[in-house]
Amino acid sequence: MIASAITAYIAPAAAGSGIPEVKAYLNGIDAPEIFSFKTLVVKIFGIITAVSSSLHVGKAGPMLHTTACIASLLGQGGSRKYRLTCKWLRYFKNDKDRQDLVTCGACAGIAAAFRAPIGGVLFVLESLSSWWRSALLWRAFFTTAVVAVVLRAFIDFCRSGKCGLFGKGGLIMFEVTADNVSYHLVDLPPVIVLGVLGGILGSSHNFILDKILRLYTHVNEKGYRLLLAACVSIITSCCLFGLPWLASCRPCPTGITEACPSIGRSGNFKKFQCAPDHYNDLASLFFNTNDDTIRNLYSAGTDSAFNKYSIILFFVTSYFLGIVSYGLVAPSGLFVPVILTGATYGRLIGMLMGSHSTLDHGLFAVLGSASFLGGTMRMTVSVCVILLELTNNLLLLPLVMLVVLISKTVADCFNSSIYDMLVKLKGFPFLQRYAQPYMGQLTVSDVVTGPLQILNGVEKVGNIVHILKTTGHNGFPVIDEPPISDCPILYGLILRSHLLVLLKKKFFRHSISSDEVNVFEQFSSDDFAKRGSVIRDTINDILLTDEEMEMSIDLHPFTNTSPYTVVETMSLTKAHTLFRELGLRHLLVIPKSHSRAPVVGILTRHDFMPEYVLGLHPFLVGGRNKLLHFRKSTLIKFFSDLCRF
Amino acid sequence: MIASAITAYIAPAAAGSGIPEVKAYLNGIDAPEIFSFKTLVVKIFGIITAVSSSLHVGKAGPMLHTTACIASLLGQGGSRKYRLTCKWLRYFKNDKDRQDLVTCGACAGIAAAFRAPIGGVLFVLESLSSWWRSALLWRAFFTTAVVAVVLRAFIDFCRSGKCGLFGKGGLIMFEVTADNVSYHLVDLPPVIVLGVLGGILGSSHNFILDKILRLYTHVNEKGYRLLLAACVSIITSCCLFGLPWLASCRPCPTGITEACPSIGRSGNFKKFQCAPDHYNDLASLFFNTNDDTIRNLYSAGTDSAFNKYSIILFFVTSYFLGIVSYGLVAPSGLFVPVILTGATYGRLIGMLMGSHSTLDHGLFAVLGSASFLGGTMRMTVSVCVILLELTNNLLLLPLVMLVVLISKTVADCFNSSIYDMLVKLKGFPFLQRYAQPYMGQLTVSDVVTGPLQILNGVEKVGNIVHILKTTGHNGFPVIDEPPISDCPILYGLILRSHLLVLLKKKFFRHSISSDEVNVFEQFSSDDFAKRGSVIRDTINDILLTDEEMEMSIDLHPFTNTSPYTVVETMSLTKAHTLFRELGLRHLLVIPKSHSRAPVVGILTRHDFMPEYVLGLHPFLVGGRNKLLHFRKSTLIKFFSDLCRF
Question: What is its main location (chains A, B) (predicted)?
Fold first, then answer.
């Protein structure tokens, strides 16, 4: 309830795992508040309270969001609102450095959550980032190396037991100790079954989660946010305390070093109302932290510790509790529930195989986790590396790779990955890497609409204010007309934020033909630096007198004179490629024939959204698969492709 | 000698490791013969003979080249010259698919060489590829997963000893068995020293190798290729058989399970002229395969097995033999010598630390390898993962990361990575990711030179033949002029190879105004498919009559109507970004003012080469660091940057 209340009333942006928001940000979508200081604080306290309440949620996603927040705050030079600023941080005050910092922050979060420095880098590379370059790889790697060294130092420091549960497991969280991992051809069928099962369960997990989240959105909109959290919390508690009654007591195995029944924290054998020397296996699964349950499921030589029906019951509970817990208005991660659920059905398959397979049930649990991760999150290399770093068992790698490949392939037949789904559900205008196939039939001019707002190289203040007030555009083409040039030519592109700076500083002059002043003396690059994500200047904050409105501004020194341009007959697919690969915000469209204005339109992210394009050209909806254009378009596409490479 | 002879006389492209060639190919440079069938065969036999001759060369690089060759041959539909073709392979006959295949092939090569499936993917991602997308990650991962499963099956099959040395070590090549890897703050200084040493030794390794290769080029040009190989081979043999005499015999340690002195192959204790129960430690290092020597150096609990001076002697020999062996006209890899040399000085540092450090000398050897790999090849994540997969020791990861970071940072202060150096030395026009700083002062029109060859939409055959014969360009702008259009407009870009297809098929018509014929009936996309890398049509192969020369071709259906364009005033830096990120071959330059021709130039890879740009604008050479432009250019750059993100 605390987690839900602080999230709902202080920082709604802190709800959920935060991974979709970071993914959207790394695609260029700067949603408000997602990296604010308030969100950071709520996220930290929220996830602590949510996880400690035994809600079936993970902590990896929120940890990633936390570290990304910290990185972003560094990137915007601290939080001015809370007086936490630092002067030397101003060098990072631009979009590019901030994005790099957030990327490194995200890597650090995953690296810390799983104690997996390489897995963290690869997770962000594979699942989150939209652009990647080798310099970034190197920086991200540096970040996670520091994480690893610091973690290692803390674990060393905490070895004496000063830090509670932290550091007990050492650097490897779920050590898989089956010494002799030998597998043969006969083990392949169950592994393939696991992969297929992981694909099916993963895609249905995503499907159900999508439906549940839509339902929750309705409920939350009606103001029942806290009630919903209370309900889920009560259901979870009921499952935890009620279901173990269904399992029967089992006698303690003989010849084990562990205490049985265990009274302590992480033991495998919980007493739960059983007679002495007996334990309840379902309670052993429920009454542990998620981490310890995973450790128990992964551990070798415990093939007979669990009853088949207990495992089935736990699997069903874990699967559905994971789904219903995610959508609450509270910080919550998906990773740990997914790993746990996967481990459960993996172990179940191991039990069903019985003596047909030589593999230990603990190894089956690891493969189950891999298959469910592959089925829901559709990661490949990063799952393998994270599991490798979690379990420290390299010999299992070929099997893990196989199972992840199968589960991802199967799941991809049904729907998209969970993060893509969440990004879409949140309504972010996410720019996919590849254009839709039907975009090849359109040219750029087919999607350019609306009247274009153009500024002159030397423009009247009144006009600028009017344009800024009446439109929401963030970039405006600047045109030079006679007498400045012989004929109208495109001078460049100016950003709304820079116009606001000029208006604020009242950089005006009286007539169009005034002498030039040295702008470099009046402005420094700091003036145009990227502001924090919370502070957004608006045109209404700027008050100008009538006399000032009649004056004019020379926009030339502040205009980007090298904007990227495309000709209006350019294929939309290729414009999409240009826009996406170069990470642009504005793309100017210039005319093919010379008799018209020097710029005919401006493309932004929204012009490439499939919904928008299909809205403009509804005939493409049905004709997407029409064979009529097939041969021709193949040949045309072929020629277009040849221009690349 | 066999390796050198077949390389020199059959396929000179098979010399060296092949990694620079693959790197250049993945950057878009299609050098002749590097992926031909001949090269493949010579590479395979050459590396077998070279390694088995005890030359100090590795096999990882050539294995990467081999697999890349196979991938490329698949991509071009087999080898038509040797009648090894397959019809369904024709779908891959385009540059993009071929590049993807070569990438996956390269991953498979490293994965097989080190039995490191994830390391293989990361190595290619970090060091070789110029473009990367998540679909490729997933395909590369699939490839290496298959490699891992097949390797695992072979090792299983060979466990009974049917396959000689193969598979003896299991999936982990150099298992580091030090069970209790515990390290403390006191171990940090030697680790840092190792990192710094690795950086210095690595950069000097690259520097000396560069000089040696330049020297070898002179020698080889004079025809002494085989003589050089013979000399190096004799020097290697002299070192192998002569140097162990300098080491004194050591008594066998007591209480070991291994035979001492060992007569067999891979033992740690070689007899070499010693009395019974004695061994020669230097001979133990020399008279093993490189793999076994590395295994011996990495093995735990052998702290007293080697003498300090033997290790120093072996280090010096290994360092210089590695350098002089690489440049021979024979297949040779760099990886294994680098790992070996690194392991040697790592162990030396361990010995020098003595009791000051709690770390095992075997672990020092691993860290030494990491530092030397980081110092020469400047890889980060991939070194860590490859070493992790080679040694199966996850607990060492934080130290490995630290040492790699330090050695890379130190080495980057002096020179560039070994592969960058080799690519430059071979004269490939490699397009760097980032433009040179001084390019920001230039516009596109500053580098466009020479008369532009333009074709009309409907062009006379004679003109086309003339242009193709007199220029070497690979792409030509196509212009529509009145009466086809109202004013001259840019229609698109046509490739030389497509013009050759049209001329070969004699797709002519008699007059400019003839009726249109359906080109889709006369041509299929197969006709324009990318040819194998060896077969290159030239204009001189096509014979045309005088009558045909007077006819014309309608180029419209074969023209790429959406070429990427930049305005002539575009900053060269931004044009470079566009060209590089989109992987273009041609970039059209259009005029700013409308009064001129619709296209003013065409940019290719060569126009972005620093040598070319500096040749055109020599004043930039000295002025690169001038502070005069500093403030202004900073502000301008700032505005340009803002357009992105």
Answer: membrane
Task: Pick the closest to residue B153 from A407, A196, A187 (CA basis).
Answer: A187
pLDDT digits (tens, 9 = 90+) for A141-174: 889 988 988 888 888 788 777 777 776 666 677 7
Nearest chain B Cα distance for residue A570, angstroms: 5
A553 and A630 fall within a common domain = no
pLDDT at residue B89, as a whole number: 66
Which parts of chain B register pLDDT below 70? 78-91, 167-171, 177-182, 255-257, 263-268, 511-518, 530-536, 594, 622-645
Tens digit of pLDDT for each residue in B623-636? 544 434 444 445 55
- Give the CB-side neighbour count of residue A641, counting CA atoms within 13 A: 15
Q: Are residues A606 and A584 in the same domain?
A: yes
For position A82, what pLDDT does the model report? Answer: 65
**pLDDT of amino acid B202:** 95
Q: In angstroms, what separates the C-alpha of B9 from chain A's closest C-alpha? A: 32
Q: Distances in Å between the alpha carbon of B171 and those of A360, B156, B268, B343, B496? A: 19, 10, 21, 21, 49
Domain boundary among A139, A158, A177: A158
Count contacts between A and B (CB, < 8 Å).
254
Cβ-based neighbour number of residue A397 at 10 Å: 24
Chain B partners of A389 at a C-beta cutoff of 8 Å? 394, 397
CA distance B335 to B62: 10
Domain count, chain B: 4
Q: How far is A551 from chain B (nearest CA, A)?
A: 24
Per-residue model confidence (pLDDT) at position B270: 80
Q: Tell me how long chain A is.
A: 645
- Rounded-to-5 percentages of helix, strand, coil across chain B: 60, 10, 35
Q: Of B562, B595, B628, at which residue does a domain stop?
A: B562
For chain B, say whether A490 makes contact (Cβ under 8 Å): yes
- Alpha-carbon gap: B451 to the closest alpha carbon of chain A (Å): 22
Predicted local confidence at residue B636, as pLDDT: 53
State whether residue A9 is helix, strand or coil. helix
Q: What is the CATH number of the domain that holds B464?
A: 3.10.580
B495 touches chain A (CB under 8 A): yes
Co-location of B153 and B191 in the same domain:
no
- Give the model's confidence band at A233: pLDDT under 50 very low, under 70 low, under 90 confident, else very high: very high
- C-alpha distances out from residue A409 to A172, B139, B288, Å: 29, 12, 44
All residues of chain A having their beta carbon less than 8 Å from the beta carbon of residue B520 are 631-632, 635
What is the residue whose two structure tokens read 């210039």? A590
Give per-residue pLDDT as tens, B234-278. 999 999 889 988 888 888 877 666 777 776 555 667 877 888 888
Q: Which value does ipTM take for this structure?
A: 0.85
Query: Within an 8 Å CB–CB cutoff, is residue A358 touching chain B?
Result: no
Q: Name the residue in chain A with its Cα closest to that of B395.
A: A171
What's the Cα-to-Cα distance from B621 to each of B261, B413, B448, B609, B615, rounded to whole Å? 63, 21, 19, 14, 9
Supply B17's token pair: 């490791």
Q: First CA to last CA across chain B, in angstroms?
A: 57
Angle made by CA atoms B310, B312, B315, in degrees to the nearest 5: 110
Which member of B117, B582, B586 has the closest CB to residue A578?
B582
Range(s) of the domain holding residue B117: 2-158
Q: Six-digit token pair at A150?
A: 């610091």
Residues B11 and B134 in one domain: yes
Is A97 in the same domain as A117? yes
| Angle CA B370–B132–B146, to nearest 5 | 70
- Could you tell me the two tokens for A61? 């996603």
Q: Among partner residues B96, B567, B638, which is closest to A644 by beta-carbon distance?
A: B96
Q: Is B23 helix (H, G, I), strand (E, B) or coil?
A: helix
pLDDT in tens, B392-446: 877 788 889 899 999 999 999 999 999 999 999 998 999 988 888 888 889 998 8
